[in-house]
Amino acid sequence: MVDEMMEKRRLIGSRLSIARERAGLSQSQVAAEMDLSRPSISEIEAGRRRVAAEELAKFAEIYSVDIKWLAGVSDLGGTTPMVDEMMQKRKLIGSRLSIARQRAGLSQFQVAVEMDLPRPSISEIETGRRRVAAEELARFAEIYSVDIKWLAGVGEEKADPLRDKLQLAARIVAGLKYEGLEKVIDLQPY
Asked: Burial code of 161-180, b = ≥16 C-beta within 10 A, e = fewer?
């Protein structure tokens, strides 16, 4: 009986670790969300600490996974089509933020200073491993001088870097004065 309980605890810990990594979160970020210490998260993921029912429910909410999968009573893989869709949207937003930052001629460090975030957070956001809060998205749009709807991928399913670059270029060209537009047209080979 004790061995079964320990095995179940290890299974839950393993699944919590997998879910956290899929969500692109660090143990420190999760600890802050859960109001626990980072070592407590480490102990839970290693199967050395029990997880209370309310904690398990909160983990499921943070990671957007099925609580049954976390508890080890289901082998669904922990994700649903909605979660997969959310991850695709996060990657789309990250890709567009990266393109917009590069087009604005800014480094990740410069953006981090402007956003009052650690530089690694910008990298995590641009790779789709970190969620972007609504107020952060609005600030990015302001810094990069781009439409927030474009950054958020409104109406788009998945990232397509070429399409995204073309859309950004079209926005830039649309804002040119006649003389500037003529110069762009003159650059085109016939």
From this structure: eeebeebbeeeeeeeeeeee
Residues 154 and 100 in one domain: yes
Tokens of 91: 């990657």
Q: How far apart are CA 146 and CA 172, in angstroms?
A: 9
Spatial CB neighbours of 10, under 8 Å, sequence gap ≥ 6? 46, 47
The confidence score (pLDDT) of residue 90 equals: 83
> Which of 39, 60, 79 delimits the end of a domain?
79
- Domain of 103, in residue numbers: 82-187
Q: What is the mean pLDDT of the chain?
A: 82
CA–CA distances in Å: residue 95 to residues 70, 100, 154, 158 = 30, 9, 14, 10
As a whole number, mean pLDDT of residues 160-178 equals: 69
The C-alpha atoms of residue 9 and residue 179 are separated, in whole angstroms, by 68
Residue with tokens 């003529």: 182
Token pair of 51, please?
């997880």
Q: How far apart are CA 151 and CA 98, in angstroms?
A: 10
- How far is it, in rounded angstroms, from Cα 167 to Cα 50? 50
Number of domains the chain contains: 2
Q: What percent of the chain lies above the pLDDT cut of 90? A: 29
Residues 100/106/109/114 CA torsion (nearest 10 deg):
-80
